[in-house]
Amino acid sequence: MGKISGPLLDRIDIHLDVPSVPYRELRARTDGSTSAAMREQVSRARAVQSQRFGGDARMTNARMSHRQVKKFCALDDAGESLLSVAAAVNPEAGSPA
């Protein structure tokens, strides 16, 4: 973050600290997920989304309107608490409602 000038940094809305991956983990010889396994996960997620939106397979979470987000993504108490803590850590995000 110290390498980015102030005027440019002011235009960035989200700032995340990402910890480095330990060398041992980078060099691990374990197999990752196969393309077939990833395809299956994506297919299951798309099926859930299609069901959520009344069988419209073209509709995805990324295309949800503000009203749909409020309807389908209501926060439980744990979610509200997490959001409140996150907003307190970043005061520029605004106070929780």
Question: What does it look like?
Answer:
By secondary structure, this protein is mostly helical. It has helices at residues 6-9, 23-26, 35-52, 66-72, 77-89. The chain is built from 5 helices and no strands. It is extended, with a radius of gyration of 19 Å. The mean pLDDT is 83. Among the domains are: 34-63, no CATH class; 65-97, no CATH class. The longest helix is centred in the middle third of the chain and has 18 residues, at 35-52. Helices cover 47% and strands 0% of the residues.
How do you describe this structure in short?
The protein is mainly α and 97 residues long. It contains 5 helices and no strands.
How confident is the prediction overall: mean pLDDT? Answer: 83
- Gap between N and C termini: 30 Å
Shape: extended
Q: What is Rg? A: 19 Å
Which residues form runs of ≥5 with pLDDT under 50?
none
What portion of the residues fall into strands of 2 or more residues?
under 5%
Structural class: mainly alpha
Roughly how much helix do the residues carry, as a percent range? 40-55%
Can you count the beta strands? 0
Please, how many helices?
A: 5
